[in-house]
Structure formats: C-alpha cells, structure tokens
Amino acid sequence: EARTPLIISGPSEESTDKYHRIDTIIPNLKKESDYTVDEKARSAILTEEGVAHVEKLLNIDNLYDPRHIEILHHVNQALKAHVLFKLDVDYVVKDGEVIIVDEFTGRLMPGRRWSDGLHQAVEAKEGVQVENENQTLATITFQNYFRMFHKLAGMTGTADTEAAEFAKIYNLEVMVIPTNKPMIRKDGGDFIYKNEKAKFKAVIERIEELHGKGQPVLVGTISIEKSEVLSGMLSRRGIKHHVLNAKQHEREAEIVAQAGRFGAVTISTNMAGRGTDILLGGNPEFLARAKVGTEASEAEFNKALEEFRKVCEEEKVKVREAGGLFILGTERHESRRID
Q1: Domains of the chain
Q2: DSSP 8-state secondary structure symbol assigned to residue 158
Q3: Rounded to whole angstroms, how far apart are CA atoms 81 and 74?
Q4: Rounded to the nearest 5°, which phi and psi values hold at 313?
Q5: What letter would DSSP give residue 129?
Q6: Residue 99, φ and ψ in degrees, nearest 5
Q7: pLDDT tens digits, 11-37
Q8: Which pLDDT does position 13 carry in this prediction?
Q9: Is the pLDDT of residue 273 over 70?
Q10: Which residues neighbour 27 within 8 Å (Cβ) at sequence distance 6 or greater?
Q11: Parallel, antiparallel, or unpaired for β 43-46 and 35-38?
C-alpha cells in the first residue's frame, strides 16, 4: 500500500478525442506477434511487427518520430488498458464512470484516477465519457510523509511480518503483545492444483461437504471477478450463500456479522467487513435490527434482541459441535499481510 504516493493534481487542457481514435486500433493487434506481455512487471510492449501495424492503422510513417512521441505514449497506454487492466478486477464501471478497485483492501476508490492518460485509455476502452487528464502538481511517498513527524507509533495485528521494514524505514521496533486468550485456531497447509478449474472444483466440493454438516464457511477470494465465478458455481449446485465484494459494500457489516451462523456460506474479497466480529451462531444485534428496521422503538428492538439471543445461543452450540467457522482461502494475495 505504501507504494502509492500522495498526489496533489490539477486539470490539464487536453482534448479527449485522440483516446477514442487510438482505442479503436488496439483490438486489431495480436498477442505475441504485435505485442508481448510481462504479467509480473505489469507491462505490455509492442514488437517491431506491432509498430509497423500501428503505423499502418494510424496512417503515419514513423511512430518513433519526435513529432509522434505523444501518439506513441497513448498507444502504449491504450495497449496497457486493454491487456493488463481487467474489468471487475482492477476497476469497475459504475454510473458511467471508471472507478479504481484498491488491490489491497478490495474497496472502490472514487475520485482516484490513474495518471499519464491511463485512466482515459480505460474510459475509452469501456465506452464511457473520457474525462480530461490530470497533471501532477506535487507528490510525496507515505514513507517520507510519516518521517516528517517528530513522534511515530502505531498498533496493528499485522506488523510482525513487516518488522524489518519498520526498522529500516522508520527506525521503529515492533513489539508483539501476546493474545488475551490461548490461540485455538487450527491452520492447515496450502493445496496446490494443476490448473484453476481443478482448484475451483475442489473448493466447491469442500464447501458442499462442510455445508452438508452445517459448518459455517467463509471463503476468501482476491478479486470481484473470482468471487462472482465461485458464486455462480455454488448457485448451480443449489447452495445458498452470500457474496461480499466492492459491489455490495453497503451491506458489508451485516453480511459478515452473520458468517458464523449454522450452515452459512459467505464468499468475500479482501475488503470483507474489516473490524466486524463474526460470532458463532450469528450476531443477535444485527439480526434484531434487520427484523424491526431502523425506525422501530427501543422496546421493539429489545424484544427482538431477546428472541434472537436465544436463537443464536442454540445455534452457537450446534456450530461448535460442527467444528466452528471454517475459513477457506482460494488463493494467496500479493501481500502476505492480507493473508
């Protein structure tokens, strides 16, 4: 997360029609012959054949002529937008706008835009209105910003894996405070599959097996796209479940609070209701509020709360007997901290 700098930006006076013009030629390019992709470095590069193909399509003699330097830049950005940036993984289209999805928290980031014409290239690709480009007026990294403070301290559940980084960048020591109660979570190892199809088949079979005995399952995925693929597979098997991703985040806390109910299946991306307690057997307060609504009087709410407390207590015993909440991670994140 600390790789994303803080930026102050302002509008620049540039026409937006060139994005559409360049966007129309990208689908004509073929992978391997016209361009190569490096997934790890997140880059796409035109080959010599690709450059000749683009020159022909745009009707220009030399793409690398200093006069065409801007066109070359926009072609590269459009190529990147088509090949590396995927809908429902890196961004979503909502109300005619391209909104970035934060790769670390899985949340939507309205108001944030990619720089150097990349956001405009994605807008042209998705056929929404292309906004004016922003120019960066000032920028600072989080590390340099924090170092401007005389005193630095923090508290988090995931600092120990990054202890070396805290020591090196901020000269801060990480102290581990032991848990209040003994650790009872059982951690299983990773299962590696030959391909994604085999992995998802195994995931669905495992969910079906656990669901059959009533054990609640919380399934972790790393993108909106994958969470929806899994949801489709579960629907075909007739397994009732909830999906939690950036598209549903208004209901986020209430969905995740009930992930511990008997027989519950919840699919989530990495944003899932951070900081919400998952209680085995369900969360009576959320259930009571959902039943009586926000307009209800305190007496009605308390009556419903008592009812659900009994229900949740009974369910809690059943869930414990079934083995507690089962967490099923379908893949690893780029950052170990999130896992």
Answers
A1: 6-142 (3.90.1440.10), 147-177 (no CATH), 196-329 (3.40.50.300)
A2: T
A3: 10
A4: -65, -45
A5: P
A6: -115, 130
A7: 776 667 889 989 999 999 999 999 999
A8: 65
A9: no
A10: 82
A11: antiparallel
